[in-house]
Amino acid sequence: MSTTTTAPAPSGAGPTTSGGAPARSFNLNAVLIEGRALIALVIIVAIFAIMSDNYLTTGNLTTITKQVAFNAIVALGMLMVILNGGIDLSVGSTVGLTAAVAGNLFRGLDLPLTQAIMFPQVWVIVVLSVAVGMLVGWVNGLLIAKLNLAPFIVTLGMLYVARGLTQVLLNGQNITNELSGQPYLGNTGFFEVFASRPLGLPISAWVMIILAVVFSLLLTRTPFGRWLYATGSNERAAQLSGVPVKRVQTRIYVISGFCAGVVGILQMANISSSTADLGQFYELNAIAAVVIGGAALSGGRGTVRGTIIGAFVIGFLANGLVIVGVSPFWQQVITGAVIILAVAVDQIQQIIQRRRSARRAVVNAKAANRGSTPPAASPA
């Protein structure tokens, strides 16, 4: 008579259904932590919609979307940097510098050794201005990747450099009238493009949507995205695996500079002026959006979807506080408290995950020990 032994179910396996397929367990705590940004957004919208009838009007929603788009675009570049475990404090100043460069190009470019003044076409102005933002990012990346300097120190220094260059270019004056261009100079059409509303949405919202799709594909469907997550999780292990760590570091800061440059152009069109204080505090709002969206400041974790939702959380919160008449000073206090709460929740999530991993490791170790223990000898 033959006997058949049944292999024990692997430890840690979840409950099974009658058909033998593993049943999916619902963990409410995990859902609340992972979806905290979306839950916060729904709560904020519900509260302010009850407090004000003007909150969910079409006009106000369009205004919120336009303002959120500026922060979201910068935040997408910041996401790339934070995924790598870095930080970019220079993005706000880069926004201002890009707008200052564009404004001066609208004024005209004095050609050396001649009495001529060149007035570039609008598309040339836009390309050159955004290229300046990418140049700032490239310098940041080069110093961080090649000289192994701390991202915080490098980008903090670049914050002052870019803001100082902005003030030098503007010389204490705002550039406003020149932005419309002149038909006989061939540099008109700036506002017609960058202040337009295709299908009722501001152009900044369309740019945000396009970049969100592109960045999502970049992170999930390309080797660069896998390299970025790998370097953020464990830079040394990624380097030993053949990942071009230094090249990835340089590129992410160039991408961050590109996003800041795009926002500089869009924001200049939005306010119809290039000012010395344009872009102030953008870096803080961008970091807040990324963190609220679930990214880890230590790197290796974060999504485009979460970052966009985080930007909308900040935008809807700020707009709601204005709608209900909260003092601007208290607005900063409340926004700061929300950011601290988001970081605290992120840390709680990591602690919970570490404890679960530790318990799972203990259970697996005990199961392995039971399986390797030889059976006791039967008495003669």
List the helices and strands and how they pair.
Layout: H1 28-34, H2 36-51, H3 58-83, H4 91-107, E1 109-110, E2 117-118, H5 122-146, H6 151-170, H7 190-194, H8 203-221, H9 223-233, H10 235-240, H11 245-271, H12 282-292, H13 304-323, H14 328-372
Antiparallel strand pairs: 1-2
In short:
The protein is built from 14 helices and two strands.
Structural category is mainly alpha
Largest sheet entry: 2 strands, antiparallel
| Number of beta-strand segments | 2
Quote the average pLDDT: 84
CATH fold descriptor: ABC transporter involved in vitamin B12 uptake, BtuC
Number of domains: 1
**Overall CATH architecture:** Orthogonal Bundle
Radius of gyration: 26 Å
How much helicity do the residues have? Answer: 55-70%
Please give a structural write-up:
Keywords: Cell inner membrane, Cell membrane, Membrane, Transmembrane, Transmembrane helix, Transport. It holds the Pfam family BPD_transp_2. The chain has 380 residues and is mainly α. It has one domain: ABC transporter involved in vitamin B12 uptake, BtuC, CATH 1.10.3470. Helices cover 67% and strands 1% of the residues. The chain has 14 helices and two strands. It has a two-stranded antiparallel ribbon with strand order 1-2. A hairpin with a 6-residue loop joins strand 1 and strand 2. Helix 2 packs parallel to helix 13, helix 3 crosses helix 13 and helix 12 packs across helix 13. It is globular and about 95 Å long. The chain starts with 27 loop residues before the first helix and ends in an 8-residue tail after the last helix. The N terminus is likely disordered.
